[in-house]
Design a protein that fits this description.
heterodimer, A: mainly beta, Jelly Rolls, Cyclophilin, 2 domains, 3 helices, elongated, B: alpha+beta, Gyrase A, domain 2, five-stranded mixed sheet, four-stranded antiparallel sheet, 5 helices, 29% strand
């Protein structure tokens, strides 16, 4: 097996695929890439299967040393990228050779980028997924000195290929959402606030949940603990709005007022703490 | 209970939620699990994962959204009143708990607050047969029903940064075991040495919804002995068929 060595891990870089879909009965979070559209695009550029494992890079990127030849593509957030001293662009396939160093510099747009590699990263599968999560995988994210396994590229096929994706509006501020299971129990004024108000991402946001600063007047108590999934937006008794993300628990006891669409989750995953969003409600 | 038609709604593009408003008790749980099995065998045609909570089922679709539309129609047509509770063939497991002061960090507080002797706390905690409703909160964390009301106590005013793997806790009318070291807001009364979650196993948790559990008190020495048996692979969970 060939390896990519982690020289610098970045702020929060983890191996992710499309997550664990058969372990929720054991209380295991689904995990997986926050912005699945960007990760799928990176894999598609390399002709990888959609569930090939990628690196999810958050806000501050890593520095990586290739110990074998590889083909790579970076999609999602726009970083200043360099292969040795040569600037690279996003959403494009590049060939790296043994000894190359890939450096993520300043973040220019979005919040999370995806680095795909030919064949995907080949770390051990645990419960049918390579997605890193504390208590499931040995590490919850990559660390300095880690060596990430992959299968070395043998040909230079596809180099320079580009894939034209339809504009998804992912860098807009509208987050697509459906009414959630407890939507009907909300007062009209609360529904109006959720549909029309602006909400600011809190700095405590992470892969588990994204919280919002604005208080919502809440007349609802807790619910009998019920299932939740990534994209479920809960309203706490204290009036805080919380969008559950990929690493969320499988059940929750707060009213589920909205459910983000897959596009909505991906759009929200690209927002930085302090940025404002609006929910764009699709009437079910 | 009277089996009833659930409220059926989509949860996002790839999940369907079925909700009832029946009471939380073991009989209704067994019916809910019977419904889950019935739907998997007779109604749902796509690759799915179904989880239950107290009175709801969530069907997660692994693949595309077309199958959700097809199944929604079939689900709406199901005659839920005619689904009967099947014999689930579930086990009753006996789990050792050490209530020594070394593990039972909040035994004194529970004793003072609820005016119970520590021996009475142990007696009240080991007497009931608890029902596993589902797993959540943490991987392998069992939602157990059936705790004696006399043990009810509110959560710690400030949560602990970390409790030991196997810590047995109480919060409100619930008791549970932390499968791994974790920050914890529950009142800790003991420690269970049995491994509740191992992600390296194909089936990572020995229990499933509908199983029953009874605790039995062990000494520190016996607790350590079980830990050593687990390490060497010689530990056998005590069970009895219901």
């Amino acid at each position: 097996m060939s390896e990519v060595e982690v020289l610098k891990p970045g702020l929060y870089t983890s191996i992710q695929d499309l997550g664990r879909m058969q372990s929720a009965v054991y209380g295991v979070p689904r995990s997986g890439v926050m912005d699945s559209l960007a990760a799928r695009k990176a894999n598609l550029l390399l002709n990888n299967p959609p569930d090939a494992a990628v690196l999810e890079i958050t806000m501050t990127g890593p520095q990586l040393h290739f110990h074998a030849d590889a083909q790579i593509a970076v999609c999602g957030a726009t970083f200043e990228l360099k292969l040795n001293d040569r600037p690279l662009e996003g959403s494009k396939v590049y060939s790296c050779v043994t000894g190359d160093v890939l450096t993520f510099g300043g973040l220019k747009r979005g919040f999370r980028a995806y680095l795909a590699i030919n064949g995907g990263f080949r770390s051990p599968e645990i419960l049918h997924s390579r997605s890193q999560y504390p208590g499931i995988t040995p590490k919850s994210r990559i660390e300095k000195g880690d060596r990430l396994p992959f299968t070395a590229a043998t040909t230079e096929k596809n180099s320079g290929a580009r894939v034209q994706f339809p504009e998804t509006g992912i860098y807009k501020n509208n987050i697509e959402a459906f009414p959630g299971p407890e939507w009907d129990l909300l007062d009209v004024s609360v529904r109006e606030q959720l549909a029309d108000g602006s909400f600011t991402l809190l700095p405590t946001s992470n892969r588990m949940a994204i919280g919002f600063k604005e208080a919502v007047a809440n007349n609802l108590k807790g619910i009998t603990t019920g299932p939740v999934i990534p994209g479920t937006v809960q309203l706490t008794p204290g009036g805080n709005l919380i969008a559950l993300m990929r690493d969320c628990q499988v059940t929750g006891g707060y009213p589920r007022v909205l459910q983000l669409s897959e596009l909505g989750i991906c759009t929200l995953a690209q927002k930085r703490p302090g940025e404002g969003i609006q929910f764009s409600l699709a009437i079910a | 209970m009277i089996p009833q038609k659930p409220k059926i709604s989509r949860l996002g593009e790839r999940a369907v939620l079925l909700q009832w408003d029946f009471a939380i008790n073991p009989e209704n749980l067994n019916w809910l699990i019977s419904v889950k099995d019935f739907l998997l065998q007779n109604v749902i045609e796509s690759k799915v994962e179904v989880i239950n909570a107290y009175n709801s089922l969530l069907i997660n679709y692994v693949l595309g959204i077309d199958s959700v539309y097809d199944d929604l129609e079939r689900l709406q047509a199901v005659d839920f009143a005619n689904i009967s509770t099947t014999d689930l063939q579930r086990e009753t497991y006996r789990l050792p708990v050490c209530y020594d002061a070394e593990f039972g960090l909040d035994l004194e507080e529970l004793s003072t607050t609820n005016k119970l002797k520590i021996s009475e706390i142990i007696e009240l905690h080991t007497r009931p047969i608890y029902t596993v409703y589902f797993m959540g909160f943490l991987p392998g964390f069992l939602y157990l029903g059936g705790m004696d009301e006399r043990l009810r106590i509110s959560r710690k005013k400030s949560p602990r940064q970390s409790v030991a793997k196997g810590a047995v806790g109480i919060a409100e009318n619930q008791t549970g075991i932390y499968p791994n070291s974790s920050p914890a807001g529950w009142q800790i009364i003991g420690n269970c040495p049995v491994e509740l979650f191992n992600p390296q196993l194909e089936i990572p948790c020995p229990f499933q919804a509908g199983d029953q559990i009874q605790f039995y008190a062990v000494s520190k020495a016996e607790h350590q002995e079980v830990q050593e048996q687990i390490k060497s692979g010689n530990f056998q969970l005590k069970t009895e068929k219901r």
